[in-house]
Design a protein that fits this description.
mainly alpha; MetI-like fold; 13 helices; elongated; disordered N terminus
């Protein structure tokens, strides 16, 4: 019993790092990584645009202006200075619609990941820690979800129910948690064999306390990396659904919906589809750059 107690105390003392020192190390590592720094700057800029969209957008993004239909970007012949990126087939300002579309992409991307991450974390920890029949039941549920393509399941649900922002977040969250569960489970299977967990069990610590204090903090680095990269895939998924017409519905603005509006005009009015595509590409790449940097920093093997 004394050996177990001393092992538990030693494990706690080894991970007792001052928050200030952690922050300074992260900042130094971030400044050394060009891709990570670029990803953070771009993502921060996009987030600021989403928050202050009402002040940045020069025009009403949903109000048509039939006198200015399909105006090219301002630098192109026939363009107008008040329409920086041109207008669409209803005379709506492309730039203003891109700015407001940023809100939808980030809201769906972040909140869907929150829902999926919470479910996957709980299921992964429970399956890995308790094992036996709990692990068997939960992993069979995971296998069942993996057997059905997530986008197909989402399309069926959104076709049955009225597609809206809230429904899209919930459906994506409830269908993308399986990756969290599988990876977190494997991490917990390794952690529960470590000395500090065995010591906690030996001295009679409750399961909830072990999970809360010993397991979850040690899988958070993996969880953060998965979550960051999942935001990028979720943004692409939302844009794909909106492009197919079963995602965000008008008058709400989505980059995928803008792509859908501009696909018939790519040959003659390229700006309608090009700028939403660039917005999706830049946002997803910035998240991937930041996620790769977080993986390198938080992975103890690297």
């Amino acid at each position: 019993m004394e050996d177990a107690t001393s092992a538990l105390k030693d494990s706690k003392s080894k991970v007792n790092i001052k928050p200030g020192s952690k922050l300074s190390v992260f900042i130094k590592l971030l400044l050394k990584s060009k891709t990570g720094l670029v990803g953070l700057i771009v993502l921060t800029t996009i987030s600021i645009v989403a928050i202050f969209a009402g002040y940045i957008a020069p025009h009403n993004p949903v109000e048509p202006n039939l006198s200015h239909i399909l105006v090219p970007p301002s630098w192109q012949e026939g363009g107008m200075s008040e329409y920086l990126l041109g207008t669409d087939n209803l005379g709506r300002d492309i730039f203003s619609r891109l700015v407001y579309g940023t809100r939808v992409s980030l809201i769906v991307g972040v909140l869907s990941v929150v829902v999926a991450g919470a479910i996957g974390l709980l299921i992964g920890v429970a399956a890995g820690y308790f094992g036996k029949w709990v692990d068997q039941v939960l992993m069979r549920i995971v296998d069942a979800f993996l057997s059905i393509p997530s986008i197909l399941f989402i399309m069926v649900v959104l076709t049955i129910f009225s597609p809206n922002l809230f429904m899209l977040i919930i459906v994506i969250g409830l269908t993308t948690w399986v990756n969290y569960a599988r990876i977190i489970r494997s991490e917990v299977l390794s952690l529960k064999e470590r000395e500090f967990v065995k010591a906690s069990q030996t001295i009679g610590t409750s399961h909830w306390t072990i999970i809360r204090k010993n397991l979850i903090p040690n899988v958070m680095s993996t969880f953060i990396v998965i979550s960051t990269l999942s935001v990028a895939t979720t943004i692409i998924l939302e844009a794909s659904l909106s492009f197919l017409g079963i995602g965000i519905q008008p008058p709400d603005i989505s980059w995928g919906g803008m792509l859908n509006d501009g696909r018939d005009y790519l040959a003659t009015h390229w700006w309608m589809g090009t700028f939403p595509g660039l917005a999706i590409t830049i946002t997803v790449l910035s998240i991937i750059f930041l996620g790769d940097w977080l993986r390198d920093v938080l992975d103890p093997r690297l």
